[in-house]
Design brief:
There is one protein chain. The protein is mostly helical. The chain has eight helices and no strands. α2 (about 50-60) crosses α5 (about 110-120) and α3 runs antiparallel to α8. It is globular, with a radius of gyration of 22 Å.
Length: about 200
Amino acid sequence: MKRIFIPTLIVTLALFLASCSGTAAPASTTSSNSDAYVSPNLDVSYENALPARLQLTLGSLKLAETDTPITSDQAKTMLPLWQALQNMTRTGNSAQAEVNALLAQIESAFTPEQLTAIREMKLTSADLQAWASANGVTMGSGGGPGSGQGGGGGMSPEARATKQAAEGVTSGSGGNGVSTAMLNALISYLEGLAQ
């Protein structure tokens, strides 16, 4: 009897511990959830819409072509925030909640008119491709990192390009993609305005 009781107890205890250990979700990182930020001001529901994070980045650059460009004072406020986002993106191990909080701070530095202008731009993957082309950034075709499961198989070329850009994937990029190039361009632009 004692020989049956001990193995049964061990198996029961092991099953109990196994069932308890699988309840916590792992922390999200920027590399796996780069488009998880939800903006209270930007629309991502239209066809081929860029994620809010990329709308803020590209929209910031495109505001220079509008009646509501980023001012010098705004640039001084935004610059350290965008630089912090750049550092988080480089390390790739920041919790998504931290990234979202930073993006919310960045978004709060815009005027309502600027956010309206960005929203009305209705930025899509085609706008992202146009920016990349104009700035000499080659976007991947889905055959490099990020292809395969969840990397864009079965997606339209525009949707795949948007997904890759959001994840920082371009052909031969080694993890530094069009989103990184765009963020670098924005930081340089803000540095110029902040002086």
